[in-house]
Amino acid sequence: MSPSKREPEREKWEPQTVHLLKDVTIGSNKPEPFYQHYQANIPIAIDLGTSTWRVGLTNSPEPNNVFPGVISRHRDRKAMKTLTIIGNDVYSDPALKSTTKTPYDGPLITNWDYIEFMLDYSFEHLGVTSDNGRLNNPIIMTEPITCTFNQRKSMYELLFEAYQVPKVSFGLDSLFSFYANTDGKSTGLVIGTSNESTSVIPVVDGKGLMTQAKRIDWGGSQSQSYLSKLLSLKYPYFPSKLNATHTTNLFQDFCYVSEDYHEELKHILDMDILEDKDIVVQAPVDVTVKAETKKSDEELAKQAEKRREQGKRLQKQAQEKRAEKLIQKQEEWDYYTKFKQDNADLSPEEFENVLIGAGFEDLADFKKYMASLERTLKRAASSEENLEDDGEDEVDAATAWPLVGIPDDQLTEEQIKEKRKQKLHKANVEARERNRELKRQEEEAKAQLEKKEQEWRERDLDDWCQTKKLHLAELISKYKERQKLLESMKDRKSAAAQQRMKNIADLANDETGSTSAASRKRRRNANATIDNDPNDTFGTNDDDWNAYREISNQSLEEELEKINKNILQVEEELLKYDPNFHHEDTFAAANSFDWKNSVLHKFIHGPRPNITIAMQAEGLSPDEIANHPEIVKKNHQIHLNVERIRVPEILFQPTIGGLDQAGISEISSDLLRRRLGGDFSIEGLSYKMAQNVFITGGLALLPGFKGRIERDLRGFLPTGTPMNVSIAKDPLLDPWHGMSKWANSQDSKDAYVSLAEYEEYGPEYIKEHGLGNACIL
């Protein structure tokens, strides 16, 4: 194969940065620490997140224990014990991952036994001790917005009756985070994003205005699930199984909030933009190529001999089957010939009745069957003779066919029959000799033509190449013309399609008085049929069969195939001898698609050409391509482009994810402009809230979140209205920091529900403190 002339001109593609697909690393997690400075009566703050728990005494600046809210119940068959593994310890052993469970169903708790196990685990790592059998620390705990009565009731029962805590207070994580980042008396609009939901809560003088709070049923859990579905649709046959941890890491590491989603979506698959936006993620795969043992010449010779023997065996089996069929056909011929002779004295009507009794439809059917048998026997005999060795000894006509030259009047009846067989055999031998001679002449002509071509190339290669290219251009032009004609057949209004319909109509009108010349000729030759059936006149003229070719486009398809074969032959010669003709110059390569203009290609494979097509152009076999290390790696790669902005956009357009709800910006606009009075004067409530828009929660870590909120708010706020959007210092830990700050302030003094109040008022009783849910009783 000659080197490609376009190699220097071909655009050089720098390799893309490949990111590894992250999973939970087994064995790398450190054991959960134990707190060494436990004190009784100090409030314990528990951020009871559906994805992560954060637990610690409020006299510490940071939570002591941060662990995922998962649990695994493992049965140790040797020790005959059931072990309860919680948090990071679940990921310390691969055997535990398959039994990992969570006590939540969405934002609500559904398995209170698991919650009790996890609370025991938390208190144990806090070093809790007691001399009275009770937990002597007040509890501050987060709960979901609009928490159900049943969940709060169950949590009261667990804390007051199982642990006998002195007092309990519940609050919302987003409001605690706002409290941690302000002086506790601020007014603002809090946008809280959690694992199961997103909330927009107005805060007036440090207290949440829960009557105007709004919740969107979309959070981090739904985002990773939605991303998983998108990737399953994008790569339906992806070899590796993506779990929730994979998609969560992909979402957190590579997704971002678009400042102008619709505008960016229009151009994200443009080559210049896709180069920066496309992220390649590689799933783990073993691409080591196993070294193939090179076989010796003796082993290769044995394999070749084995294949030849197998081929001979198959040929012999095929010959035996053909011989069996020939014998069966000969027996049928002999039987029905004798059958015809035995009934020769019958009249045609009587003989036809006998034939019907023998299973034939009529006399014409019998004649057709006998003619078919005769043709089959002649073809089989001819084929058997043609399969014989061409190197047989020359046959002497005088000894091999002695009766051929003797007149019939000098022969007996038996000798005449034998003479016919000898004449047939002689004709077959002579035909075989003629075929051998024609084949030899064709080979000599081909060799002579190749010799002339070689001399031509050696004498003037440029002239030979130019002539071949002109011939190739003519063939391609002819191919396109025929292809265009074939395509026009699909348009029933085209001239070609109209002519085809006319031919079909002429065939249909033959039996109803067609006056065409072909029809008249068939009627004149009505008796010139194989079985002399006057009702079957089709086929007596060879031109009759052309009608089928005209109405079925068979001639066009055959011509296209022939031209394409000639094109491939000329291209093969040019590829072999012309140093300036390459695979990209071939007719097939010219008709291949431009991947840069294929939206589907860029969406799935990113801004790089498909190396499979390049390998096919190099002539590699399908097996070599499928097992090539680069192809194996490519098959285990994920390209993130549109998904990077589509998944986070659901926070602003929930209809994309199938939610019949308003997005963050729409809710904020409704609150500031209508529900909160819409007063944007200096002393107005909406004015104050626009100056303090606060974002917290895990999704606040997405790049571009703050800029999108600023852009959307600026779009509906009155001109000149001051606006400030801020993100929590630590969106993940600030709820716990706010609980710790609140517990150590006077704001929490009257916000606890004591054991005595619980026993007196029941589980439906709560105390409002401005950072939690409101009492609706």
UniProtKB/TrEMBL annotation:
Positions of the UniProt region annotated as Disordered: 295-323, 420-442, 504-544
A Pfam family recorded for this sequence: Actin
Gene3D superfamilies hit by this protein: 3.30.420.40
UniProt biased composition (Polar residues): 529-540
Composition bias type Basic and acidic residues, residue spans: 427-442
CDD domains (UniProt xref): ASKHA_NBD_Arp5
Alphabetized PANTHER family for the sequence: ACTIN
Family: Belongs to the actin family.
Name by which UniProt lists this protein: Actin-related protein 5
